[in-house]
Specification:
Layout lengths: L2 E4 L5 H12 L3 E6 L2 H11 L4 E5 L5 H9 L3 H4 L3 E4 L15 H28 L3 E5 L12 H20 L6 E7 L2 E2 L2 H6 L2 H8 L5 E2 H12 L9 E4 L17
Parallel strand pairs: 1-2, 1-4, 2-3, 4-5, 5-6, 6-9, 7-8
The protein binds NADPH dihydro-nicotinamide-adenine-dinucleotide phosphate (NDP) and 2-hydroxyethylsulfonic acid.
């Protein structure tokens, strides 16, 4: 049985990915800060299939401890799903909070590259795979996207750069770049369930399960085949965004 290491498994895309991978025959290390949610996943799917690693991805010592304490049967990692991440705020750059910006950089960029670097030797040994959840926000900007968009452009591009460095190792690397997925993402970003409900209302957004199924499909492809980038959107969202500001009001 193969092992996946899925970050951000307490909600949304990550939680759905753990369920879908287990259903497809994988065992998973499921990470996140909310212990009760990870405990519930273990209870639902079984301790032989899910190991809960409770840590804040921004805390390097806690990350090291979680990796060092992996039970033997979960320690040989075949698939890393770099999913944990967040947006904070939608204010324009000139009104944004620097603390929010730092949190996004620490989580979406620093923690993601750190964990990837720490797990690379295991992934190379197993000729495994890395799937990073970037975003369309890394390719198409929108007002208030600022540092979130920048962090996801980094995630998208770092993932492609990994492909180059891992040339010849047999490790497959994929950047998944979704548009609107209804999860806790907008609740976290805005702090408002109402704002979240309004954003998704009538849009028929993608679900965590949609992205999870895509990850399972990619992870199950034959070892000679690599999906480099995959951009997904709900049919009701598109990427046309040019604007003109006129001096005459
Ligand atoms: P959710 O808010 O539903 O889930 C985010 C997950 O990330 C949670 O499990 C959360 O766990 C974890 N996480 C956040 N910060 C930390 C931290 N400091 N330490 C450990 N875990 C952390 O959002 P999504 O499922 O939507 O987001 C998953 C990924 O998908 C993110 O990288 C996001 O940028 C990306 N994405 C989302 C899109 C969307 O429209 N929803 C579209 C494109 C990309 P906990 O809080 O328990 O620690
Ligand atoms: C999340 C998608 O469009 O809200 O990465 O930025 S979007």
């Amino acid at each position: 049985m193969k092992t996946a290491f899925v970050t951000g498994a307490t909600a949304g895309i990550g939680e759905a990915t753990v369920r879908a991978l287990v259903q497809a025959g994988w065992r998973c290390v499921a990470t996140g800060r909310r212990k009760e949610r990870l405990d519930a996943l273990v209870a639902e799917l079984g301790p032989d299939r899910v190991h809960a690693a409770i840590f804040d991805v921004r805390d390097e010592a806690a990350m090291d401890e979680a990796i060092a304490n992996l039970p033997t049967e979960f320690a040989a990692v075949d698939l890393l799903v770099n999913n944990a991440g967040l947006a904070q705020g939608l204010a324009p750059a000139q009104k944004s909070s620097l603390d929010d910006w730092q949190t996004m950089i620490d989580t979406n960029v620093t923690a993601m590259v750190r964990l990837t670097r720490k797990l690379l030797p295991r992934l190379i040994e197993r000729k495994g795979a890395i799937v990073t959840i970037g975003s369309v926000a890394g390719s198409y900007v929108y007002p208030g996207g600022n540092v979130y968009a920048g962090s996801k452009a980094f995630a998208n591009h770092f993932t492609l750069a990994l492909r180059a460095d891992l040339h010849g190792t047999g490790v497959r690397v994929t950047s998944i770049e979704p548009g609107m997925v209804e999860t806790e993402f907008t609740l976290v970003r805005t702090g408002s369930q109402q704002a979240s409900d309004e954003l998704y209302r009538g849009a028929d957004p993608m679900t965590g399960e949609d992205i999870a199924d895509t990850i399972v499909w990619i992870a199950g492809l034959p070892p000679h085949l690599n999906i480099n980038r995959l951009e997904l959107m709900p049919v009701n969202q598109d990427f046309a965004g040019f604007r003109v500001a006129r001096g005459d009001g």
